[in-house]
Amino acid sequence: MGIDNIANPQPTIKEPRPDIEVLTLQTLRDLRLPWLSKFDHASLAGYISENPGLSLRVSTGNEYILGEKWRGRTDIANIVEIAARRNKRALVEEWVERLSRDKGVALLLVNQEAWHEDSRLFEQLGFSLIEKIIFLERGLPSHFDWQAYSAEQGLPVLSFERATVADVDPLLLVDHQSFPWLWWNSRDELGTYMSMPDVHVFLAKLANEPIGYASFTMYSGWAHLDRLAVEQGVQGRGYGAAQLAHALGTMIVLGARSVSLSTQEHNTQSQRLYSRFGFRIGRDAMGLYGRALRELMT
Questions:
Q1: Contact, 203 vs 160, CB < 8 A?
Q2: In sequence order, what are the residues at sequence separation of 6 or more whose Cβ sits closer than 8 angstroms to the Cβ of residue 193?
Q3: Cα distance between residue 108 and residue 293, in whole Å
């Protein structure tokens, strides 16, 4: 190589972006899925039907990106799978550009697996860590008198009602008054969740007015606390502790010998509550990565 070539390197020629189209039920028919995919053609067809317009493919070949309405919400889109090598950047850029034009979408997310496969690409496109989720757990005794415990600890007296799918509206109202915008449930997500056979949801009332709810899922010998909600206007008064005592007592009656949960790393208020009840932080953690398209609600 001559000196002139070193001093004057040839400019890099950027390949044109390939033809990218929305993945539909029609274009899915000739798509060959990799064996590591989370989907087969039948499950992917249902997925695309539930999340129209959120998945893309390179029109020639088998490269694609799958997106969804995160937790059933139309204002948050999430990348769940990418199958691409040569055109990965082009697919992600196209996905981001298309959703950036949708005024109803405020936040883009990418799952942890896709992030770790190519974090540099996502960082270059404006994605970063939004939340770090930590996991807590504890064993459970064979018996727990939650009412006696509540009286002993001086916890407020609440009434608890087992909620059903018919109670989605009041639960959704409490949900949105309890959690930051990012963690709101959608109507579809909450309704689907409550229709699952091993899910238990209890609406907490004070003077016959809903002020929170607790929900958990029973598994074989253990339970997972999915939500512990207290309306923001009445937080700090012991209502979360009262609900947690009731939830733990109910889990034990249903046969749970241990319980797990997750919360945000920065949510020290919740962590103090769980610590009082004997929960310990586990070794696992999970990152939530995303890019805001407009100012987010808090």
A1: yes
A2: 185, 199, 215, 226
A3: 7
Burial zone of 24 (CB within 10 Å; 0-12 exposed, 13-18 middle, 19+ buried): middle
8 A C-beta contact, residue 294 and residue 75: no
Q: What is the pLDDT of residue 6?
A: 42
The owner of tokens 């694609």 is: 64
Distance CA 73, CA 31 (A): 27
Note whether 140 and 248 are within 8 A (CB): yes
Number of helical (H) and strand (E) elements in the chain, helices listed first:
11, 12
Look up the pTM and report it: 0.88
Q: What is the identity of the amino acid at 5?
A: N
- Provide the pLDDT confidence category of residue 9 given band limits of 50, 70 and 90: low
Summarised one tens digit per residue, pLDDT across range 34-93 is: 998 999 999 999 999 999 999 999 998 899 999 999 999 999 999 999 999 999 999 999
